[in-house]
């Protein structure tokens, strides 16, 4: 008998196969979070770069016009207005889009009205711009809202279509970046941020220092995102719990609402008017000096008793904050001229 004939090939037993499969499963389970973290890190880096570019564009605008772009360009008492995002289109190499929409020639209301019969204008106003999109967010091309649970209570998004303009139900494309209007609701003209309704603030207005003042921050889909083209109803009603309206939060935000606020049913804060992100633990802001910093959602917060406005006729209203010295670090960063010391954050 040959030696070859007496040799038998031995395979894996069922137990050995199961052990190997189990080990592979454990390795995959350990690897997936690392891969997800790496992907989120890359997305967050892209988001940081977007905010830097928008900050640089605002700086370039301010160098030319001596003021930062206004949060809402009021054309003689109209409700829907071009926002800071539309005004800086030439500074982010979107001159053709700027000219097509007629930002320097017509009001936003005229553009919205004409878009109904002009497909080129219609498509321009709904074109998605990567410069205004955070890759970590899940918002659609047009503004959308994702319902979330908070303290085991299911939230309610604002009415559909989300972030529509008062002129009609027309939507312009989504922006995950909104200007910091200050502490008060975004519709208010007498606000204390850098870019608010009818603002005309230059570098000199940031008396607290450019490195201590928010310029632009993020907003996620669970807070109904935002829009880059303009803002709605800066002369109308602000936040209404019963109507579920968001109004002037289209392109501006307030530090009167906590960062990453997820209570969509809140009657204490405006869930559609603040800043938020899907980055774990906080959100990113571009400051007045052009730097971008990650602000933890646990930052010291105290709005000194200010509540969101729910009535009408508040566009030019005077506002008070209770005792200014009680303002939290988050509020102090959002106000350009409070004169208060910024603590650790």
Automatic annotation (TrEMBL):
<feature type="domain" description="DUF1559">
    <location>
        <begin position="36"/>
        <end position="301"/>
    </location>
</feature>
<protein>
    <submittedName>
        <fullName>Prepilin-type cleavage/methylation domain-containing protein</fullName>
    </submittedName>
</protein>
<keyword id="KW-1133">Transmembrane helix</keyword>
<feature type="transmembrane region" description="Helical">
    <location>
        <begin position="12"/>
        <end position="35"/>
    </location>
</feature>
<dbReference type="Pfam" id="PF07596">
    <property type="entry name" value="SBP_bac_10"/>
</dbReference>
<dbReference type="InterPro" id="IPR045584">
    <property type="entry name" value="Pilin-like"/>
</dbReference>
<keyword id="KW-0472">Membrane</keyword>
<dbReference type="InterPro" id="IPR011453">
    <property type="entry name" value="DUF1559"/>
</dbReference>
<dbReference type="InterPro" id="IPR012902">
    <property type="entry name" value="N_methyl_site"/>
</dbReference>
<dbReference type="InterPro" id="IPR027558">
    <property type="entry name" value="Pre_pil_HX9DG_C"/>
</dbReference>
<keyword id="KW-0812">Transmembrane</keyword>
<dbReference type="Pfam" id="PF07963">
    <property type="entry name" value="N_methyl"/>
</dbReference>
């Amino acid at each position: 008998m040959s030696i070859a004939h007496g040799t038998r090939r031995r395979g894996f037993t069922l137990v050995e196969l199961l052990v190997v499969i189990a080990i592979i499963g454990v390795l995959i389970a350990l690897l997936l979070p690392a891969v997800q973290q790496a992907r989120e890190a890359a997305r967050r880096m892209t988001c940081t770069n977007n905010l830097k570019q928008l900050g640089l564009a605002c700086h370039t605008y301010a160098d030319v016009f001596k003021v930062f772009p206004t949060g809402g360009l009021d054309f003689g008492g109209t409700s829907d207005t071009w926002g800071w995002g539309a005004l800086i289109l030439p500074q982010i190499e979107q001159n053709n889009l700027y000219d097509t929409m007629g930002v320097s020639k017509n009001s936003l209301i005229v553009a919205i009205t004409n878009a109904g019969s002009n497909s080129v204008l219609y498509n321009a106003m709904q074109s998605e711009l990567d410069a205004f999109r955070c890759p970590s967010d899940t918002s659609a091309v047009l503004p959308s809202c994702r319902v979330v649970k908070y303290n085991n209570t299911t939230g309610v998004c604002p009415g559909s279509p989300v972030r529509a303009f008062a002129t009609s139900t027309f939507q312009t494309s989504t922006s995950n970046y909104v200007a910091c209007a200050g502490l008060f609701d975004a519709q208010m003209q007498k606000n204390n941020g850098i870019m608010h309704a009818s603002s005309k603030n230059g570098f000199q207005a940031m008396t607290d220092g450019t490195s201590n003042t928010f310029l632009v921050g993020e907003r996620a889909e669970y807070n109904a995102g935002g829009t880059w083209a303009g803002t709605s109803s800066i002369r109308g009603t602000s936040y209404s719990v019963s109507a579920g309206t968001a109004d002037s939060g289209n392109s501006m935000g307030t530090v009167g609402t906590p960062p990453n606020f997820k209570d969509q049913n809140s009657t204490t804060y405006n869930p559609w008017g603040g800043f938020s992100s899907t980055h774990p633990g906080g959100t990113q802001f571009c400051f007045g000096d052009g730097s971008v910093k990650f602000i933890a959602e646990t930052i010291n917060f105290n709005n000194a008793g200010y509540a969101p406005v729910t009535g009408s006729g508040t566009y030019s209203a005077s506002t008070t904050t209770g005792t200014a010295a009680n303002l939290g670090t988050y509020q102090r960063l959002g106000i350009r001229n409070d004169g208060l010391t910024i603590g650790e954050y």
